[in-house]
Amino acid sequence: MTELASMEFHPQPQAGEPRPWAFPAPERGSLGNGLTVLRCHRPGQQVVAVEVLLDAPLDAEPAGLDGVATIMARAFSEGTDKHSAEEFAAELERCGATLDAHADHPGVRLSLEVPVSRLAKALGLIADALRAPAFADSEIERLVRNRLDEIPHELANPSRRAAKELSKELFPADSRMSRPRQGTEETVAAIDSGAVRAFYEKHVRPATATAVVVGDLTGVDLDALLGDTLGTWTGSAAEPRPVPPVSADDTGRVVIVDRPGAVQTQLLIGRTGADRHDRVWPAQVLGTYCLGGTLTSRLDRVLREEKGYTYGVRAFGQVLRSAPDGTGAAMLAISGSVDTPNTGPALGDLWTVLRTLAAEGLTDAERDVAVQNLVGVAPLKYETAAAVAGTLADQVEQHLPDDYQATLYRQLAATGTVEATAAVVNAFPVDRLVTILVGDAAQIKEPVEALGIGEVTVVAAE
């Protein structure tokens, strides 16, 4: 007791005054080769993030070669005219840099992170990769084999299998969106170095590419660095490429991907809806968050807390392709898993939540919590250069203005409960949802049919 009495207790730290915050605005420019450049100075961020966006979308892949964009993206780090694959990896490591690349519906993206002191060297490496990739036969063959090895594992994953089936159901067979982003076993097996190089030569050029650079650029002559690296990349101009509109069939129905003996059912419920160019997007984001964006959302309160069916159910909107002319679309979906015996009751309660939402609307308290979570934590979300660069790259990919994200947060804060309710009800109409269930059809088909939420079809799992 004597020791406790003599201890000196320091006062508890108190929160300071909140400071104004807005998503950082980039500076826009271009290089002599036509490459568009967005830069954003972030004091204190000693790890610089670079995103390079290439106008090589999945719908540009040749017929029968789905996945060639993915193989090309992965091959950028597998050697150049200056370095073998092993040497290129070693040079990246010496820089303390990481380089990732992936292909999606809007195009191919390369993501680089490197300490600012090694930025010049890393930019030179990524410039070499874009300017003169080796695409060696042996490396392409290895990447194809690796991709073929991944496919069975993806099909065995219930959530990946559900996503594949939802795309197949929603989009017409001749649409690239109906097929797996990274290709099937048949199409990937047909890819060789010649196919990769042909795709590269047709679609990869600086005139249609954008580089985003974010970090502490104090004392960095970025114009000179870019000119000496990415500025040496050359290529011809490109003719405008027609972009097919997104069409989808969201007739209410249920597809069960049969997994005999499965102890859980993976559910994915979705349709397509407005993208970020639509005026409804801020209200749709807010309403969807209230429905299933966090542990305190309506879906979790009922299915997780009250009924104990699941560890969590989420509702979300994911942009598939965005365009100012209205030809873009977002995937609006609800995802989660439940134990097999409670699949029917869980789906029934989920539909009850949607119907109640349509009948009674959101509450002001739900709206306020959503705004606080979405807007209030934004400064923490964008503490790293990579987070800022990724969002700026998303804006470029989706043909949005440079101040879009900053404007979105203001719009979210100003969106009322009535607007958020109308948006989420329109996003998830109870009679226009395609439901995918990956589970044991023998146990779940009959109770699901009894719900009357659409015709039920059973397909075999691969």
Automatic annotation (TrEMBL):
Residues 1-26 are annotated as: Disordered. Residues 38-169 form the Peptidase M16 N-terminal domain. Transmembrane segments: none annotated. InterPro entries: Metalloenz_LuxS/M16 (IPR011249), MPP/UQCRC_Complex (IPR050361), Pept_M16_N (IPR011765), Peptidase_M16_C (IPR007863). Coiled coil: none annotated. Signal peptide: none annotated. Residues 193-374 form the Peptidase M16 C-terminal domain. Pfam families: Peptidase_M16, Peptidase_M16_C. Gene3D superfamilies: Metalloenzyme, LuxS/M16 peptidase-like (3.30.830.10). PANTHER family: METALLOPROTEASE, PROCESSING PROTEASE. This is M16 family metallopeptidase. It comes from Streptomyces viridiviolaceus.
